[in-house]
Amino acid sequence: MDAGDPSRHTIPVRPPAAAVPAVSNSSLQKRAAEFCNSVLETYKRKSLSFWFLLLLSSATMLVAFTASSLLSRLYYANGGKSKWIISWAAVAGWPITALVLLPPYLFGRISPTPLSLKLFVWYILLGFLSAADNLMFAWAYAYLPASTASLLSSSSLIFSALFGYFIVKNDLNLSSINAIVIITAGTVIIALDSESDRYPGVTGKQYTLGFIWDILGSALHGLIFALSELVFLKLLGRRSFHVVLEQQVMVSLLAFVFTSIGLVVNNDFQRMRSEASNFKHGEGSYAMVLTWAAITFQLGVLAGTAIVFLASTVLAGVLNAVRVPLTAIAAVVLFHDPMSGFKILSLVITVWGLGSYIVGHSSSKVNS
């Protein structure tokens, strides 16, 4: 039958067309069933205590990091000026993890992990990077609204995926790449709308500086997650949870040392008293903000490290991105941050990119 044969146009097409949805529905049902079976099998492979720890760590990370971000902004909003002081407060809570280690040592007959030279060098590197990361975010929160800073920090998911792929060999599929592109677009939208949410007294140069440090801090955050997982895989071997606690104590302690050195060199220890006296609501409020900043940040990092140990860098990056809309909404409610149409669009795009990343990662797990 050639192209000019009119009988070609009289062939009924309704039966095949009707059959397509049936095939499509069957395919969707099959995929849904495979996904549900995969989730159920994954659940059965792990103990109840594992899921309890993972759920507890996830909830703690979301709440603690959100609270820490808001407290950092509150510090600057109520009269704080120093970048080093709020960075120092973030790691000043390192004894919290050390206290958690005491029961296993005293009652669990567990000995500390031998500290080799190679492992100690890794701890020094991670401690230095953590101190630098805290300082970068301090600059960001000094000049940016908390909602804007949190939206920009969603880019840490991008860097977690990339560093996880190159360093730890985690999967990076098309959905993950799509999420990276989408979240990047959300970051660009925030940059284009920079004039709408700049605080009075913050210059354009300061806003740009906060923007840049936020992105760099997010990149460093993703690198720290990937390197932490690499240390677990290559040196610690995921042997037990107390090993993760030891790692966190050492990294936080060394970050505390590095930050304390910066505080001394910058003469900010002496400035604490004058800052406290000029702080809104007085010295008591100043002490409470720094104390809770230390507690919440340390709990967030501890929970994030636990998630890297229990699951992977991927889940830690996903949860770190989940807190973005939580922080943005809380900042609008508590600090009355301006929420322009562009920022709302950026928030929607960020959540969309996050969803794409989760779906892509879940699909790769099902296929594997």
From TrEMBL:
This protein's UniProt keywords: Membrane, Transmembrane, Transmembrane helix, Transport
Pfam family for this entry, one: PUNUT
GO molecular function terms listed in the Swiss-Prot or TrEMBL record: purine nucleobase transmembrane transporter activity; purine nucleoside transmembrane transporter activity
InterPro entries in alphabetical order: EmrE-like, PUP_plant
Principal subcellular localization: membrane
Superkingdom: Eukaryota
Annotated membrane topology: Multi-pass membrane protein
Alphabetized SUPFAM superfamilies for the sequence: Multidrug resistance efflux transporter EmrE
Location of the protein in the cell: Membrane
Any one cellular-component term (Gene Ontology): membrane
Transmembrane segments: 50-72, 84-107, 119-142, 148-168, 175-192, 212-237, 249-266, 286-311, 318-336, 342-360
The family this protein is said to belong to: Belongs to the purine permeases (TC 2.A.7.14) family.
Protein name (Swiss-Prot/TrEMBL): Probable purine permease
Originating organism: Musa acuminata subsp. malaccensis (Wild banana)
The organism's taxonomic lineage, starting at the top: Eukaryota, Viridiplantae, Streptophyta, Embryophyta, Tracheophyta
